[in-house]
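S1.2 Input.
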Amino acid sequence: MSSPRNDVHTNSDTPERPGSSRKVQPRRRQAPVPAPQKISAYRRWFGTLHPSLQLIGLQLWMPLFFIVGFCLCYVFAFHAPHPHDVPIALIGSDPTFVQAVQKALPGEFVFHTYDSLAAAKRDVLAGAMAVAYDPSNNEFFKASAHQFQVASLVPATLSAVLTAIGVATPKITELAALPSYDEYGTVPMYVMLAWCIGGYMVAMFIGIMGGPLRHRVRMAVIVVGGLIISLITNTLAGPVVGAIHGHWIELVLIAWGWIVAIGLAVNGLSYFVGRFIAAPAMICFVFLSMPSSGGAYPKWFMPEPFAWLNNVVVGSSMVDMIKHQVYGVGPGPARGLITMACYAGAGLVLMYFGKMLWERRRIRAIVTGRTTMFQDAQTANREFLGKQRDVELERHGLSSTETGTLQVLRDSDWEDDRVSGDVFTGGRDGLENEPLTTGRIPVVRQQDRQPVGGRTGGPGSGPRARSASGAGDSGTPAEPGDKPHHRHAAR
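S1.3 Output.
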């Protein structure tokens, strides 16, 4: 005797009766039907284009972005670098020299009075002062390893002012010379650029293609990828190219930390901008960071806003850390470590809130059935490639089944239907209108192979395609009324 099922929950809209032990399940509300997605006329027209052309068109924002970025950042920043508010350490006082400089070069130099020559030299090595001038000895002190352009231009400019007021040509003393393998001091800038590009590109591809990945998986890829990039870049710049001598382990650790910090920041941004992550990543870590880093020209030569951005961009801190480690100039590592921690922390915060936003957007898109133009183009291109595959198989006498295997078409079902076209547009498939040289793919069945003289072959072997003479499978000549199946049937 069967027992009743008491574990099946039933829904009832009737109120519960007094004394009844049956629990009334609450009625679930049905989600409202989402409004259909509105498709603009432009999007409908764009969807009529070739799928591959749609994908190309939707990616053309990248070269346009590069053009605008290079013009507004690189060309604008470097087309006319001019000194402004360049700090000069003046030991003691020299009112005549100061007035002459302010009259001849207004707004270009700012003098800071020092009582100690040692303190002035220390600030020149640290990069706080461009050069130091000692009027009592008529001597300039510079540090080419910190900023080659400053060390070359500023003493020469101020020496011209001194000679104009009747002072003898001053002596120039080098506090930190550049090594022979970095004659112009550009190695730290380009090494910094390699670290930045490696860091943001790893996270950029994670953001574009790794949306569903969990936080720990993304962070593991960034950490491991950052270590690999650090090892490669420092090995190439150091032992291979010879642009940096020594300090390999220290630079590997510094680069690893910076690449991870940049990767976390870009990874956090990717949740908010999706496949357009390349734009904010390159703006922050290439287009703005490069001119503001002080690697090519110091901030005292850069126009605004690049002069102010020197205080916050990663490039300036990275260049300073490289110079301090390799040449012993510039500020200590404290500023760089603080900046690194700030970018990494900002990335973690963006990852935490961005993941939740991304999941809400994803669910909303699934429920409402909304798609983007890029998703539509990808779907259309996938369907187009599938059809093209079937056409190519049929052209060679093959067809694919639902399970993905191939089968040979019957002779009566196979024909190459390529149409004519000119030399520029080709046929309907976009290829040049030349005869196919392969013909029909030969398919040999194992039971048709017969040993002849110790070798496989004989009358039963060979492709199923008809012979060039038009004979049938039985070997009898073809009837006069038989027509060959296009150009391959006559081969």
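S1.4 Remarks. Confidence is low (pLDDT under 50) at residues 1-10, 428-433, 451-491.
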